[in-house]
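Hey, can you fold this?
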Amino acid sequence: MYKLYRLRNNLKLLSIPYKATRATCVLVLVKVGSKYEKKELNGISHFLEHMLFKGTKKRPTQKEVAEVLDKIGGSYNGFTSEEYTGYYAKVSKEHLETAIDWVSDIFLNSIIPEKEVEKERKVILEELNMYKDNPMAEVQRLWKKLLYGDQPAGWDIIGTKKTLQKIRRENLINFMKKNYLAQNTLICVAGNFQEEKAKKLITKYFLNIQTGKAPKKAQVVEKQKSPKVLLQQRDTQQTHLCIGVRAFSLFDKRRYPLSLLAHILGGMMSSRLFVEIREKRGLGYYLATNYEADPDTGYLATSLGVDNQRVKEAIKIVIEEYKKIREGGITSEELKKAKDYQKGKLALSLESSDAQAFFYGVQYILQNKIYSLEEIYKKIDKVRESDILKVAREIFVPQKLNLVAVGPHKNKKLFQTILNSL
């Protein structure tokens, strides 16, 4: 069972003992991501994440930083989202201190060398090109752009070519000083370790973390009165689609019925849409319906890739399945299967120390609260067929419906007409 401690300077430690492993993961989460950025410096959270691996006062070069964990077979990385940024080191249990030393060093003592900033700018621009060259990734980027437009929730986490060119070393240092604060940071230690030892080491190595007022982000504005369509013309072999609706945030109780609804629609290989689109008609290879929720936003969307000549047919099937659930609900068998599927997937996803750290740590960062696996199971089990029907009737309405298509299509009006049939 996890334990939450408040250490010096309001720094928080989340201890997650997990003896069924020989590994220990040290994860540092700071509550800042692309939703906290200014437009002219969009992408700075992600840029800074890259730069923390480029050298510290104790280990001045990228090679010296990397060798610490390479020498003991550890795994390590960083990641950036809209809401938070994270850095972790996963090692065998006897190297706990090395992991804490390493993570604290890059988090507190990175020097962000000027020459490395210029080199990494080129690397990130190539990362951006990689995503843009992938239609499956591009349709997801455009989906959020369509939903939220020109506000932080609609901007790319990685930034744009224009904003990336503007970010300088001074911007990165100022952003780090403003956001990488004790009040804004959570340290998670998960796996096989001695709790008291971990507390002492965290206190020692994070002694000099700066304090200050945690930053705030802009409030998300949601405006939609009719179905929206966004097309990106590309000479692709298939059309990549994202079809879905605005929904509920992380704090909404309706998120549990909605997550089960997503599984029933397209979350499993026996789900309604998977069977209708892939198995019955052979329309496409990949298909998935997901519910995504943040503290201030939420949506349900079906993503799929289909033959360019059968796009209209595929969209109509998705819309029709949305309508069927809205009008006829689901069966008790479907609900039981979705509950068992969600609980089983959740259990299997937590078999490693890093997964445990992420599961509990992200909950706290986003919600300031943690639910155990058993508590989540109880919330899932409480969902009734009528709850899902009610949710479907709330979200599957034309004024909340959106579609993004990446492929060789120009007729936006045609897509608009199909959406209006919901």
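Oh, and this one too while you're at it.
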Amino acid sequence: MELTKEQAQEIIARRVAKEFKDGDVVTLGIGLPTKAISYIPENVHIVVQSENGVLGVGAYQDDSNRDEHIINAGGFGVTVNEGGCFVDSLTAFAMMRGGHIDLTVLGALQVDAEGNLANWCIPGKFTPGMGGAMDLVVGTKKLIIAMEHTAKGNAKILQKCTLPLTAANKVNMIITEKAVFEIVNKTLFLREISPYSSLDEILQTTSADFIIDLTA
């Protein structure tokens, strides 16, 4: 099924939100991962941390509650839930580096079958910096990559990353509009096939070996 970019991202964000567990402290990376905040189940209460120093991030701002001083790490206006707070960068990064984040969701340029992640640099192109990605992936208890399955028709799930790595062997799960994969002991498992895709399509657009295990 042919999906628009917006439809694909909504499918991914909705599926990511199903991984949230009550009481989790969660960091959502810039871009697509932050969209998952709109789909948190009503019976699940999480604390969303933003690496720029907001703890307790809520929904995006709209015209009724606009405040240019309250933004997430991507610079978008957000609200802060009751009990939320603001901290300095030192404290925000101490949370990330110190193992206090239960779940981190990031985008990626490439992920490979061993759980290696490349999401910060394309050689020869302008790169503003790695940001907090390195700290997040090393310090989090669980790392989910939320991304579109391909980029301009090219596979993003590879047998081995070809771009500079952000971190090695840290990815636990990959969620795309086509599938859900898990990485266990450097082995890639296909866990779910999206209703909007098929096994044949996944095989054609994934450049990595994987084990089909839909029972987990």
